[in-house]
Amino acid sequence: MPSVLIPTPLRKLTNELDTVQAAGANISELLENLDKAFPGLKNRVCDENGTVRRFVNVYVNGEDIRFLKENATEIKENDEISIVPAIAGG
Questions:
Q1: Contacts of residue 80, Cβ cutoff 8 Å, sequence gap at least 6
Q2: What are the distances in angstroms from CA 1 to CA 47, 69, 89?
Q3: Domains of the chain
Q4: Over its length of 90 residues, how does the chain's per-residue pLDDT go in tens digits?
Q5: Can you give the chain as a three-state secondary structure string?
């Protein structure tokens, strides 16, 4: 099952776990399954249309899904998914 790296701001939803397992054929399914296991997580990552929020980056094995197929990006059994909140500075 793919592993999902959870950023610190979302760990309160995962009982402080920094890595969780979730199934899914693509990012959209994976996020749905994560939300079933950890209610509220998808709402923090996605907007009301189910699209990953613009200030959140999601990577599959280090590749940004925005440059792949976004939520339709396929995932495999041993993939590593990273959820990374964007950081602004100035």
A1: 2, 3, 4, 5, 60, 61, 62
A2: 25, 20, 35
A3: 3-85 (3.10.20.30)
A4: 999 999 999 999 999 999 999 999 999 999 999 999 999 999 999 999 999 999 999 999 999 999 999 999 999 999 999 999 987 665
A5: CCEEECCHHHHHHHCCCCEEECCCCEHHHHHHHHHHHCCCHHHHHECCCCCECCCEEEEECCEEHHHCCHHHCECCCCCEEEEEECCCCC
